[in-house]
Amino acid sequence: MIERRVYKDLLDAVSNNPAVALLGPRQVGKTTLALEVGNTRPSLYLDLESVSDRAKLSDPERYLTEHEDEFVILDEVHRTPELFQSLRGLIDRGRRRGKRTGRFLLLGSASMDLLKQSGESLAGRIAYLELAPFDALEVETSRTDRLWVRGGFPPSFLASSDAASMKWRQDFVRTYLERDIPQFGPRVPAETLRRFWTMLAHEQSSLLNAATLARGLGVDGKTVARYLDLLVDLLLVRRLPAWHQNVGKRLVRSPKVMVRDTGLVHALLGIATKEQLLGHPVIGHSWESFATETLIAGAPAGTEASFYRTSAGAEIDLLLSLPGGELWAIEIKRSSSPAVEKGFHFACADLNPKHRFVVYPGEERFPLGNETEAIGLRTLAQILQHAG
Length: 388
Description:
Layout: H1 6-16, E1 19-23, H2 30-38, E2 43-47, H3 51-56, H4 60-66, E3 71-75, H5 83-96, E4 104-108, H6 112-118, E5 126-130, H7 144-150, H8 154-157, H9 162-180, H10 190-202, E6 206-207, H11 210-217, H12 221-233, E7 237-240, E8 256-259, H13 262-268, H14 274-278, H15 283-298, E9 304-309, E10 315-321, E11 327-332, H16 342-351, E12 355-360, E13 366-369, E14 372-376, H17 377-385
Parallel strand pairs: 1-4, 1-5, 2-3, 3-4, 11-12, 12-14
Antiparallel strand pairs: 6-8, 7-8, 9-10, 10-11, 13-14
Helix pairs in contact: 4-5, 7-13, 9-10, 9-13, 10-13, 11-12, 15-17
């Protein structure tokens, strides 16, 4: 069992709120983690994809009142958004009887924003946490490259071979396209969405060019925006915004777009092994997205992530604005002998960040001049963990 970093946060949230929503893509380990929490107290687990469990909630207030003294775990709660109104009444009645915390744990495969649309009635009664795939802080250092190649979904990362991992990811993509995604919005042809997802993988960590994507798919720009919103809402794609504060420069304003799990990037591109990846043009962008996800995962809660680029060529791959206001500038290099380009120095002169780092695949930490340090990915992620 790989210990998930969010476990302690989840226990704290359950102890301080009547309801907690744990959100993340399918197969990321939400149910396993929820059952671990359930083992710490009397609990009841209901899978809302099960016909029999949904039938138990035909009269949810009556059924759940009968289990008022148990910690109720509701899996795949996005399938029954009408349940939220009933939960509100149960929580409020429980509060009046002194049952203020630890009532419900809701598991969903959609983003916080998407679930909040259904959960507005629980405002002030629910806390939200996200469970992402494994990150570099949760696995042994010696397995970091495996994590990069296979991605962090537990069945993929822990598979017995690269071939078995690849087969799992291919099946995962197909299942998401054919069965899961249609639950969340208007029907999108599975083959069209696969092409779109694959196009994003080819353009991993690049600026969004909606017009090019639209031409490639034979649709209009609004349709591309809808497809992208859907994958972002399902926590499968990250839209990294451009730095937007006024610095007196002509800034690039298009976001960067990246498939969040590099294992899915590689599956969409037919890359099964590290050797194949090392010879593929996507390698640099794949490593950049892997590092970006790791550092965002390690950053303190409330950190805002963006990138910086001007029309004159000044550029920072990742800007982290920490809750206390500190700005960290991070350049990401796949090279074992990283060098800092002029554009990074120009960008730092514009923004004057508190810290300047160049992340690379090695472990040694050393200065590069102009207040900039080369640093390993895992080391910087650990520093970020304690920066808040």
